[in-house]
Every structure is written in C-alpha cells, then in structure tokens.
User: Which sequence fits this backbone?
C-alpha cells in the first residue's frame, strides 16, 4: 500500500511540475512576442525618421516615388516605396543614422540594451551597425522592408533583454518557485507521516 501511495505522490508531483513548466514557457513566448512586436514597431519608426530626414534635405519640388494606388491595401511601410528614388537622387539609406534614431527611440521607451542593426539582401548581410556579437540570450525584431518587393530588409538584434522578461515575469517566477517548494514540502511531510503510521501499525 505504501508503495502505491509513493507512486501516486511522485506522479502527482511530476504532473504539477510539468504544468508549471508549460505555463512558464507559454508566458515566456507571449512576452517574447510582445517585445518583438514593440521593438519592431520602434525600428520602423527609426527608419521612417531617417527616410524623412533625407526627404527634407531635397530641393523643394523634388518628386519621389510613393505608394501606388494598387498597393493601398498592402502592409508595407510608406518609406519602402521611396528608397529607389532617394538612391537615384544621391540620398542612399544610412544605417548609422537609423542606429542613432533607434537608440534615441529605445531610450525614450526605457530600453537601454545594446543592439545591432542588419541590412540584408535576401538572407545575405550587406551591412551591419552596432554590437555585432552573438550573446547567449537575445531577440530579433521582425524584418522591416525598405523595398516594396522585400528584396532589401532591415532587422535589429537586441542583446540580453533580461530586464524585459524580469519586469514581465518576475512575480510569476517567484510565485511559481514558492508554490513548488510548498508543494514539495507538503508531499515529503505526507510521505513521512504515512511511513510512521505504517511502522506503528506493524509494531502495535
């Protein structure tokens, strides 16, 4: 009988730990997706600011390509249509300037992590700017197109975003740890009580 109780107890503990792991993993994925979405939007804002800084330096009346009516429903940033015209006018995109704007925007959102920007053509890195080293823990933004056909894109790698996850999941991690310790203690205590009762019953 005692053997079956131990098996049931251990199985219950295993199931509880498994549920907690699944719960934590789901929370991690949810918060990661939220962070990726936010930093991607901020990167798009930085590219937009850099593009319009070049537009403002053009002579008044200069025409640049804009979104055609046929693409009005597509989820493509307006600046993606302007890049070819700006290149032809001698105003190519500047990753250095984007990095400067992105750093300012991140700091305004209280995000002070190091980052690296990548300009890609397909899967090939054309240029990068920032702390171009791989960390054990990092997240990458979505790829932001700077051509309407997505032939050129920019993405950012945020290094060690630990602070984000601690802010989002700190209380969850602490409460889960306390719960597991409490459950393990209760189970161990229960097993010891049962063992003592069995010994008493065997030795009246």
Assistant:
């Amino acid at each position: 009988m005692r053997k079956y109780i131990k098996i049931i107890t251990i199985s219950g503990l295993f199931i509880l730990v498994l549920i907690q792991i699944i719960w934590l993993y789901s929370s991690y994925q949810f918060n990661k997706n939220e962070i990726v979405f936010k930093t991607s939007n901020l990167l798009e804002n930085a590219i937009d600011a850099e593009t319009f800084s070049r537009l403002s330096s053009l002579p008044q009346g200069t025409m640049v390509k804009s979104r055609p009516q046929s693409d009005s429903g597509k989820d493509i940033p307006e600046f993606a249509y302007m890049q070819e015209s700006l290149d032809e006018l001698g105003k190519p995109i500047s990753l250095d300037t984007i990095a400067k704007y992105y750093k300012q925007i991140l700091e305004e959102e209280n995000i002070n992590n190091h980052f690296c920007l990548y300009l890609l053509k397909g899967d090939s890195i054309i240029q990068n700017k920032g702390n171009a080293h791989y960390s054990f823990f990092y997240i990458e933004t979505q790829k932001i197109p700077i051509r309407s056909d997505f032939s050129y894109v920019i993405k950012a790698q945020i290094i060690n975003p630990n602070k984000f996850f601690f802010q989002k999941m700190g209380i969850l991690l602490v409460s889960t740890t306390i719960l597991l310790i409490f459950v393990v203690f209760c189970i161990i205590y229960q097993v010891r009580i049962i063992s003592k009762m069995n010994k008493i019953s065997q030795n009246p």
Summary: The chain is about 55% helix and 15% strand. The longest strand covers residues 152-159. The radius of gyration is 28 Å.
